[in-house]
Structure formats: C-alpha cells, structure tokens
## 1
Amino acid sequence: MSARVLPYVLILPVTLFLCLFFLYPFILVSQQAFSNGSELTLDNFREVTSHWKFPISMKNTLLLAAVVVPIQVALALLMATMVSKMGKGRDLVLYIWTIPLGISDLAAGIIWLAIFDQSGFLNSMMHGLGVIDKPLNLLSYQHPGVVFLAIALAEIWRATAIMLVILVAGIGLIPKEYYEAAEVFGASPWKRFLRITLPLLRPSLQTALVLRVILAFEIFAVVAALGGTLFPVLMGETYAYQFDLLNSRAAAAMALIILGISIGFTLIILRVLRVPKGASI
Amino acid sequence: MAEIQIKNVAKIFGAYQALHDINLTIADQEFMVLLGASGCGKSTLLRIIAGLETATTGEVWIGGRRIDHLSPKDRGIAMVFQNYAVFPHLTVFENIGFGLRMQKLPNDEVTRRVEKTATLMHIEQLLKRYSGELSGGQRQRVAVARALAMEPDVILMDEPLSNLDALLRMEMRAELKGVLADSKTTAIYVTHDQVEAMSMADRISVMHQGKIIQAAAPIEVYRNPSAEFVASFIGNPPMNFLPARPAGAGRWTVAGQTFDGPQADRAALQFAIRPEDMQPAEQGLTALAKVVEPLGAHLLVTCEVEGKLFRVILDSDMKVRPGETLTLAPQPDRIRWFDPETTLAVA
Ligand SMILES: Nc1ncnc2c1ncn2[C@@H]1O[C@H](COP(=O)(O)OP(=O)(O)OP(=O)(O)O)[C@@H](O)[C@H]1O
Ligand SMILES: [Mg+2]
C-alpha cells in the first residue's frame, strides 16, 4: 500500500467511531436546537435565554467555575510539587490523593451532604462542642453562602485529583538539570517554581485546565445533591427542560450553549498558555 | 583572587563511597581538569564544589572563604552543564541574563553584559531565538555565555563538549581555553577525554575510584605518571609494562635484557615504557609483531614480548609484517619503574 494512502487507512476506524458516536448525535442535537418541528429557527435559544432562571444559572455556573478552578489549580500545583519532591512513600501518597477520582460525582455530593446535613457530622460536631444549641439546616435558602461553600468544597475535594495526576506527570518530564542550573544561577526555591516549573509545565497546565473547565461547566450531580433547586446551574436547567418540562428542543439549545461556552474557554486557555515555537522541552 | 581548596572531602551515597578523602588546591586563574573514567566521582566532586551536593565530610574553600555551607548562589561560581541546561522557555538573551536577573541588576546592565558575552561567544545574532531553534554547538555557546555573564570567580564545567561531534569539539576546545584565559576566572573542567584534558589543562587531576591519583601539569602526568593507573590510563595507546627482576647494583632484568634502574631493595618491579619511546636497534627487547596498523603519521605495531602485550609506535616508513621479530631499544631516560605491590612509581 502506498505511503500516501496508509495514514488515512490507519485513522479510518477512529474517524468512523467518532462520526458514529460523536458527530452524528451532535448533528441530531443541533437539528433539534435549531428547529421548531418544521423550519430552522432561533426560537429555542430565545426561549431558554429569556427565562428568568437563565441569568442566575449562568451566573452560578460561571461563579462556581471561577472560584473552584483557580483553587484547584493552586492546590494541584502544590500537591504535585510535594509529590515530586518525595522519595519514599510517593506512590502511596499519590494513590490516597487520587481516591476521590474513583468516586462518582453524585456519590461525592452525597458524602458532603452527610457532612452538611441537618443531622450531619458538622452539626453534631458543632453541637457537641457547644457552638450551637440545636442542629441547623445549613443547606437551606437562608444560608446561600453555606450552600455555595458546600458545593465548592465538594467539587474541590472531588475533582482536584484529575489535575494533580496530569501535573505530576508534567513535572516528571522537566529535566532535573534545569532546576540545578537555576539554583546555581541564583534562583530561590520560589523563583525556581515561578521561572522554571510553571513555564515548563504549560502544556500540562493547558490540558488540566481545559479538562477541568469543561467539567466545571457541566457540573450537575454535586449541585443536585447539595443545593437542589436552591442553586440553579446550566446543566441542572438542561435536565429540567428535558425531563421535567419535556421540552427536548429547549434542552438541546441549552446543551449547545454550554458547548459554546466550553469551546470559548478552551480556545482562551489554549491561546494564553501556548508555547512559542522552538520553546518546548 | 579565587584559590580553591578542597580539604579532606569524602562523599558517601548510602552504602557506596563515591569520594575518598580528596585534597586539592587549585590556584587563582588556574585551569584544572578532573580526568577519569566513567563513575570515578568527577561529577560528584564538581557538584560538591558547586553546592548541588553536600560532602559527607570535609571542607571547601574559595578565595580564603569557607563555602561548603553556603547555597550555590553565594559561592561566586557559575556552571556549564553536560546537557547545557539552556532553558527552553527563554530566549537566548534571557538565558544568558538569567543569573543577572536573579541578582536584580538593572536592565541596561543586564543588556550590556549579555551583549558583551554573546559577542565573545559569537552568538550575538541568536539572542532572540529559543533553544529549540539552536544547534548543539550553539546551545553549548549559550551555556558558556550564561556562565561568563555572571563574571564568576570560579567556573565549573561538567563535560561541556561531550555532546559535540569530533570536529566541533576540537574547535570549541581551543576557543573555550582562550575565552577562559581572558576572563581570568579559575576553572574546573570535568572530562573523560584525555586529549581534551591534555590540550586544555594547566594541571590535570587524574581520578580513579573516588581518589585523586595524581595532580600535575599535563606533560608531567604523561611523562612521569605517579602510579601504574595513571600510566595505563593516559596515552593512547597507554604505556607498556613488563616484569623486572633485580640483577644487582641498580640493574634490572627485563625480558632477558638488563637495564639501569632504581637502587631499590625489591624482589620485583614493573618496567614501563611508552610505545613511541622505542627504536629498532641491534640490541634490545625481542618483540614478535602480531598486528600492524598504518595510521598515516606513524605505524602502530602490536607485539608480544615474553607472551605479554606490547605496543610500539614506529616511523611510518618502516616495513613491518605480522610474524616478524623486532629488536626494540627503549630510550633510557624514558623508562619508568613501578612497585608491583603499591603500584606507585619508584625513582
Ligand atoms: N545520587 C546518587 N546516589 C547514589 N550514587 C550516586 C549518586 N550520584 C552518583 N553516584 C555514584 O557515585 C559514583 C560517581 O558518580 P559521578 O557521577 O561522580 O561519576 P563521574 O565520574 O562523573 O562519571 P561520568 O563520567 O559517567 O559522568 C558512581 O558510581 C555513581 O553511581
Ligand atoms: Mg559525570
């Protein structure tokens, strides 16, 4: 077989797979989102964006991402740096830190519900310590801050490890000689982190951030478990359109809006963290 | 003034002793080469001086100041790494200026020094490039420029030329020597290439299994090796050895011939001679030619003398065939003697 044809033959199975399971459903969803049954229209988008809950759920989703993702980046960087400095016990620590990865997001939400619930650990502890005299319903409309905090904590606990794993692998790729050179030429540990680790980690940071930000816009189960309807998010609204209001065209439009936001942020991340030509390790 | 003193330095990694009681003084502006086979502890010693490794025991002094407890940046040193360690995410300019930026020098001073050293290393036209856009030789120049830009008291180099091809290595060798002599820094240069060592060094420290066997000027190391190891390590091909028996009154019998030797009261000595220090003659050692290699400038003949491997370098006009018997007369003033028990030279 000629060398010109062979590459295409080799990617054919993947292409078919992607077309069948990604492109085709995507086209179906788009069709639904842009039609009212007979003709092409933007009505579905108008409908979902003019709903009073849309701005709130948009704001909540973005706010959550804006709070959770930076904290996760910082934590994952810190943890990855610690892990890569460890000799013995490194693998054990890494395994323990990545346990939350194996827990589904709904289960994670329920674990944190067990902490913040009226009869949960937090209430019993505060009660036992005498801080409060009767258990409080923390996850209620009277405590929007606590609801937000609980969701953010659950998300950080649950999904930092995915970044950690990517960053640990990325740090492992940076040759030790760069750190030694930086040290000899006068860079303190903090400067070495800023001037060597961070810039050389750009490709891994890119991957980790894209993955995390997309997941952050898709947040659903944790919010459902902890906030219910108190804290509307885009994905929750999509679900409501599809299964409560049985309006699959509106749900499809919501799905495309979320996709659009994800693509937008992905492009920004790729652009901001790009590595100039000739400057990779 | 940056004289370096290494006092009783030893290094133990777990159960492995990489360095044994190293003592060495390197004069101000001297070019010292650490030469030895792979794994003998050259890099370890260099890294202890740099502060990238801590000595298990012993002290390091630079310019009359004890520095082994200081961090690398406070030691007045700069280093050129084996794989250059040119930062890939910084331009050549920022690489050369890295140390200066860390010292928080003003911008115009950084620019001045970067441009000066870049010109010195002939890379002034590459300042805007990234290391991925450079050849190995250019990267090497950047690494040297980065070290020189610091205007250090001491410059440490760990096999800086080992990744270059032979021709470039020869070119860089001469250039580096010139640049370092002009910069008036004290230099320690690690290599396992004896030609590099001989051609660049003011003094060579020959290392073996974590010890410095001999530290002396290149020609001294070559002519008067202090131990059998040095004699068999330096020179290509190395020195020939033959067992010698006392023949009384400072005379020694070697392969049936007697030679003047040391007045030593020993049952046996090793007779040693360099391959190029012999001439075919009427009288001398009887050698059976085994392999003849014409190398252009001369003829390398591998022989056997009393069953022992023996190499001789002859004039390229000589006609020698394998199986022939040669009679070789060693140049008397070039014969060296070693004690087979201590392996040290005997005068
Ligand atoms: N961090 C370390 N842990 C354990 N052993 C080490 C360590 N660093 C070096 N060694 C050992 O110490 C000895 C000397 O190593 P060193 O790197 O100084 O050798 P070298 O002379 O520079 O060799 P080469 O020419 O191959 O670079 C080697 O046997 C090596 O295995
Ligand atoms: Mg080495």
Note: The mean pLDDT of chain B is 92.
## 2
Amino acid sequence: MITLDRHFVIVPNDYNEAGKASSELKRTLKRMGFSRDLIKRVSVASYEAEINIVIHSLGGTADFKIIDDVIYLQFIDCGPGIPDIELAMQEGFSTANEVSRLNGFGAGMGLKNIKKAADDMILVSDCNGTVLKLKFYIREDDKNVG
Amino acid sequence: MLVNDILDSRYRIWTVAETGKNAFSGCYAGDLLSVVLKSAKAGNLLVTIIANINTVAVAVLADLPAILFCEGAVPSGEMIRKAEEEQIALLSTGLTSVEVILDLVRRSLL
Ligand SMILES: Nc1ncnc2c1ncn2[C@@H]1O[C@H](COP(=O)(O)OP(=O)(O)OP(=O)(O)O)[C@@H](O)[C@H]1O
Ligand SMILES: [Mg+2]
C-alpha cells in the first residue's frame, strides 16, 4: 500500500529555499509516528541530497514515497553531473564554491552521510544529470513510536 | 542545563523568552553543516559562526535545542521566525567558539 507520495521541485542556488522539501518530509514522518532514529536517518539523507542539487546542479526534483514497509527517496537533477563518482564519494572531496562554503557547505561529507544513513543507495550520473535513489526499511520497532 | 543559564552580559538571546527554557546537554562546535549533521548529538548546543537559514534547518534535523552564533554573527529575522516555529533558541556572542567553550566549562555548564 502507498502511504506517502510527494513530489518537489528543487531550485538551484536558492539558499533560502534549500532544505524545504526535507523539512516537510521530516514533519510528515513525525506525524506518521516513526522512530526518532529512522526519522533522523531519512531526513538527514534527504537534506544532504537536496542541498547537493541546490549548490552543485542546475536544479532538479525530489520524490518521496512510502510503499508498505519501505521509504523511497529519489532525486533527479538537470546536470552537469558528477564526472567521477568514486572520487565524489570520498570524505573531504568537494567542488563547492566560495559562496557555498560561506553558507556552511562544502565539507565533502554529504554523500558519505547519505550512504551511512540509507539502507540502500544507487547513484547514477552523466553529463545530462544525476539520479540518486535511496531506500530505507521500516522495521517493526520504527513504527508507532511518536 | 537551560539556555537561560548561559545568558550574561556577553550573550544575547534573539528568540522569544520561552526558548530560554530549552534544556541542552553538551555542545558541538563546527562551521561545516554536513559535519554537524554527522557528529552533533541530539540535545547538544550548537556553537557556530554560520548564521543562515540552513543552520536552523540543521538544528531541526539533528534535534538541537539551541544555536549560539559566535564572533559577532547574528541571525536574520527570517531565521528567528523559523527557529521560534521549531522552538529552537538562537543566541549570539562576540566571543570565539573556543572562548565560549572554555567559558561554559568554567561555569560548569558543560
Ligand atoms: N547533484 C550533484 N550534481 C553535481 N555534482 C554533485 C552533485 N552532488 C554531489 N556532487 C559532487 O560531489 C561532491 C561531493 O559531494 P558531497 O555532498 O559529499 O560534498 P559537498 O556537497 O561538496 O560538501 P558537503 O555536503 O559536506 O557540504 C561535490 O562537491 C560535487 O562535486
Ligand atoms: Mg553535499
């Protein structure tokens, strides 16, 4: 059964709007009564992915779905893509510009945080854009907590 | 510890008085938001110089009850609104992060 199905457009370079989709996702998960641990893992991963689209891409979309006991997050952007995914996944690697750094981004930790948080992660990228798919399993002790 | 315990002539609170009653335990200092997300523990006071709406978003995600902006950084009106909506306290000081931590330890707040 589908219990959540949300779609968001992510605007590039808009630091004030950045994180809106993930904040709403967190509120929704809270309302649905999931455990604090699950909510934190999902919303941190979502936030990092959303910010990456804001600061590194030409814009994109986020889709959040819950089907039975699995949470799916999908992020798609319009490029320029990640030339070397293995390098991008390394802690500390960042191409964030000066403005992003002044806003507190660019530690090169985001993708690592996402990988650690998610139960499953697929990252596909070429010059047309980047697709990030994340999966989180809802365990029995994650339900009806809040 | 309560946020109000921190306040003296060197510290200022920007959010409604109610948020001064927020409890915190321990603190995390850092200016790179992804590292804050990775390392800060729920309930920590966040000490940082990064004062933008994303700092508040990170506090929400990481369940941090208060943010202390140091070295003269101050929150915008929008940040204050958002923080109040989420019941997060925003404070500021001219001290550096290290001075803040030494001060909080000296006063047995950490
Ligand atoms: N959606 C994207 N489009 C293009 N490049 C990206 C995208 N996401 C990540 N990257 C590339 O991968 C690098 C590493 O990303 P990661 O999120 O780990 O760190 P960061 O965003 O640079 O810094 P942090 O997330 O710690 O603030 C980025 O600097 C950028 O070069
Ligand atoms: Mg990032």
Note: Residues A 48, 52-53, 56-57, 77, 81-82, 88, 93-96, 105-112, 130; B 34 surround adenosine-5'-triphosphate (ligand 1) (CB under 6 Å).
